[in-house]
Every structure is written in structure tokens, then in C-alpha cells.
Amino acid sequence: LVARKSHEEDTVIVLPGDVTVGGSSSLMVAGPCSVESELQTRTVAAALQRAGVKVMRGGAFKPRTSPYDFQGLGMDGLRILREAASEYGLLTISEIVDPRHIDEALDYVDVIQVGARNMHNFELLKAVGEVNKPVLLKRGLSATLDEFVHAAEYIMSRGNTQVMLIERGIRTYEKSTRNTLDISAVPILKQECHLPVLVDVTHSTGRKDILIPCAKAALAAGADGIMVEVHPDPATALSDAAQQLNIDEFNTFFNEVKASGLYR
Ligand code: PEP
Ligand code: MN
What we know:
Layout: E1 13-15, E2 19-21, E3 27-31, H1 38-51, E4 55-57, H2 75-87, E5 91-95, H3 102-105, E6 111-114, H4 122-128, E7 135-138, H5 145-157, E8 163-167, H6 185-192, E9 197-200, H7 201-205, H8 211-220, E10 225-229, H9 247-259
Parallel strand pairs: 3-4, 3-10, 4-5, 5-6, 6-7, 7-8, 8-9, 9-10
Antiparallel strand pairs: 1-2
Helix pairs in contact: 1-2, 4-5, 8-9
The structure holds phosphoenolpyruvate and manganese (II) ion (MN).
């Protein structure tokens, strides 16, 4: 179902407000790693609206390495995200980690994110495959493209055809970036599948200083969109403090990406 040979044209996913993913226009998805408070979320939402961004991300269920680290605000986080987004006319993307949370989350998210750590969680994939809500599927930490595509197939085989893929870097021996951005994943996925393909430049690199060239490379390689983390005061962030852009840095980033002519 995911394969290009089953569906020759690019799939375009239409989100509320006629925001499209795939096809002729690029999509910028931005927002904090975690929803931390109303003020933090509203501050980012206001900045994104001013910048012309249509879709805000924000994690509420955070899959952290350590159980002692901030785990996210859960359903309260989703409510905060939705309220801030609605106030500023934005759509929402947030990760769901447990099939039991899906029903309740449907009121708060416009796109369900399946995180890298859950790409192999087949019961979650089947569960998001059964709802009528677009899904943003992240590539697993060490997933091959074949495994990634099969994870998307799990979702689609349950009836949900609104699936977007996102490359977020893979584990390699290279230590100069948090993960290794597999830029070749973009043209391969675009060639072999008909689904929109995005690139998360933040988690793939873990470094703010190379986001602009990485985003340009992703778009030049055919990506339909970019995801980037933005926080009003990254130094105080409860997760991923080192890699989030502040609002000024985000504006510079987005302006440079648009100025490249690669962002359609
Ligand atoms: C995220 O996008 O919030 C996230 C946790 O990323 P990943 O699942 O790619 O690690
Ligand atoms: Mn993060």
C-alpha cells in the first residue's frame, strides 16, 4: 500500500484549514520538544503564527532515556498545546506512545506522531491505523528503510492512508552529531513510496549550528517538509535543551531556508 508501484502519484495529505502535506508546497513544522507550560507554549505559538508557520509540534508524552527525567505533561500537555494552537490559528502534532491514549488525544491533535522509539511498536502502529487522523511516523533509531516502510505499511493496512514519513537520523559510530542524518533516505523513500517525506533536522543533528544547510539539503533531496524544535528559552528547557532554537534563531533559520528558493 505504501509502495509507489501501488499508487503512482504523490499522496497529498490535507489537514484542517486546507493545509497540505506533500505535493507542490513545503511544510514547516516547529515547536518545543516538550509542552512545559501554558506561557511557554503560547509564546512559541505566537512566534510561529508571526513567522507564517501553520503546524506546531509539542511533546506531551515524552519517551525519555531516563525514568527520572521529565516525562511530559501527558493529557494536560495536549490540552495546553491545543489551546495555544487554536488561539493562534495553528494545527497540532504530538507524539502518542500508548494505544489507550489515542481516543482522548483525537480531540487535541491534528496529526498523531509515532516516535522513533515506537516505530517497531506494532500494536501502536495497528491502533493508529484504525483511526481517521493523519499520522507522522518517525524512522526508528536503527531502522533500515525497509523496516521503516513496513512500519508505514502496518498503519496503512489497517485502513488509515494518511501517513507521512519523517527521517530523524539514525545511530552510527559518528559522534559529531547526535544521530546521522541519512539524507539518501529522502530520495529513496520518495522513489519507492508515494507518501510525503519530511526531515527532522533537530533530532537528526542535535546541533543548532548546522540546521540551515541540513534543511536545505533535505529540501534539495526532495523532502516535503522540515521539522525543527523551537523554545522561548532553550537553556531552561525540560528536555533537549542543547538543541532547541530560540525564537530569533528560528526566524533566521526559516528566513534562510525560504531565501534558498528550495522551500516551495
Ligand atoms: C520528538 O520528536 O519529540 C522525539 C522524541 O523525536 P524522536 O522520536 O525522533 O527521537
Ligand atoms: Mn526533542
